[in-house]
Predict the structure.
Amino acid sequence: MAFLGVPRAAFPAGNSPQKLGQGGLSKKVQLDKGYSLRDWIVLHNDLSKDMNSIGGGFRKVSIEELREHNRVDNAWTAIRGKVYNLAPYMRYHPGGADELMKVAGRDGTKDFDDVHAWVNIETMLRRCVVGMLVGDDLSTIRNRAKGKPAVAAVKSGGEDQDPAIGHGKTPRFDWYQSKEVIHVVFMTQYDLREDNIIASLDSSGSLLEVVAVLGPASSYVFKIHLHGRVISSQGIKVLVKNGKAQMTMVKAEETRWPQYGELLPGNGVVSNRDIHFHDCIIDDIQKISPDTNVYRVKLPPAVHFKVPVGHHVIIKANVEGMELTNPYTVVQPLTAPSSSDAQSTDIFLMIKIYPQGVVTPHIGKLSLGDTLRISEPQGSFDATCLDGVSDIALIAMGTGITPMTSVMSHVLASHNESKLHLLFSNKTEADILWKDELSVAVGASSDRLSVEHILSQAGELWNGTKGRLTLDAVRTFLQPLREKKLFVCVCGSPSFNVQLGKWLSELKLTAGQYHIFS
């Protein structure tokens, strides 16, 4: 359901460059002129308009009354106990009025959270609030369900000794120390990778939160109030190996602690963990086309995470008094970053600046050293689907190249011998993003990476393949690989993705042989 914006688990991200300008969301409708998000902001901020249908007041609404407001011109819904008048927003909704009407006259909390809990509805529909929902049965008015926290096991050691690997399904932690540093070790039987771990310190350096991401909607959380302070500005060093994730921090005072501290409430398995945002610094801006930039941003020292292959982050910005969020696909450079201070946790974002857009003009005005408020990683793509295959075919259109960059970097950096084959469709040669980088990458890994370009509006000097991508072109591209253990990744506009899915089925590829980023 495309409730107020884009699907939470969608990838490429709904408002990421892959989707914008190439047909929008698969459930997105063509809005009438004058009904863009910017137009909504103008209307929403017009104090002369009665946005909540009751003259701007705030009152109690019974469940029975809510049920009566179920028409397009008189549609109310409840989100986390607040009742909103949806009628003014109907023609502005990117998913169309039909999607909003699915929650008209009832509680829409679960629908909203399932789709895009990251949207700040309290600013988006601030003046549309009718009041608070009241009644005898409010069991459906709640925040997203949280899993029952499990009890964590804690050892009482604490000296300079490497803890044993934990056993059992319930993750636990141990700790050890020197006078200078404290090590907290998260232990589990899960096959943890560094991109499964999110670690952060509060500004005081006394509260540590460690999150092990177990799946798209499940995480295990440890919250620890440390016995003493650590220096947040010196960051958290994370080492992941053999099912253990070790967090190392520098103590504010060189002394031995009698204990690690105390385990805080709220630890255990959490379903659909709330999205956390962090203030990141723009460290580099590279213009790769007249309207597209690649931004490198650095996490705060007190935060550590790596974005998994094929995942995205959400940028939050205050635009004309309204807090807006847009998801953006994270790209991975195909050549080594030129800066000597590049870190594995740096985030690279390829963003096309739309002059008539809402968020991207704000981003386009930012300079080196400015702040971007960025979420922790979001997404559901599991790179283990690439394990054990001999050949990976990548079929991309336009800015659909972005998830392919992380796939290519991941595969080329691995120790396996998988070969990558990219078929890249664009309109003109000028539209080919990272054309030079792709050429350099092919030169550096010619035995494992090949790139074929196809242009639908090629110029006279173009010597490559010309025309639109067709079933025959895809068949020809894949034919030499069919006798091998093949996996195919696809990314482009929604219509491109749908068409490629049909073609791959016609070519007798099974669902387990390809992934469509959509």
Residues 1-26, 137-168 have pLDDT under 50 and may be disordered.
